[in-house]
Amino acid sequence: MSRRPPPTERAILALMSCVFCKIVAGEIPAKRVHEDDELVAFEDIKPEAPVHILIIPKRHISTLNDLGSGDDALVGAMIRQAASIAKARGVDATGYRTVFNCNAHAGQTVFHIHLHVLAGRGLGWPPG
């Protein structure tokens, strides 16, 4: 695994203002449904479905474009956690959707990667 370069001033400012980093740090309350060494999962404050959970890494990563090959296990853990949450919420058999948005045109509004888990109603296609 390669070493990451030191953060830039811009990256440090992003960390200081990132709402998800503040949730990880406990500075902003959230209805947590899961936490482990790498991830936090919590209910979305503006749910788009009866089940709408966000799964985030504790480490700040702004977009999917910032992931490296060393992050493969982290992304896999996020997907596996989505399946676990769906099972715990009783929607694994009826169906659920997982979504990563990357950058503004795709609908990313918080620049800290997060996986949406949506379920509990019929979800149309295409989204958006």
Distance between the termini: 37 Å
How many structural domains does the protein architecture include?
Answer: 1
Low-confidence stretches: none
CATH architecture: 2-Layer Sandwich
Strand content: 15-25%
SS-derived structural category: alpha+beta
What pattern of helices and strands is seen along the backbone?
Answer: HHEEEHEE
Q: Provide the CATH superfamily.
A: HIT-like
Identify the overall geometry: globular
What gyration radius follows from the Cα positions, in whole Å?
Answer: 15 Å
Task: Summarize the entry for a quick read.
This protein is of the alpha+beta class and 128 residues long. The protein contains 3 helices and 5 strands.
Features:
128 residues; alpha+beta; HIT family, subunit A; five-stranded antiparallel beta sheet; 3 helices; 5 strands; 25% helix
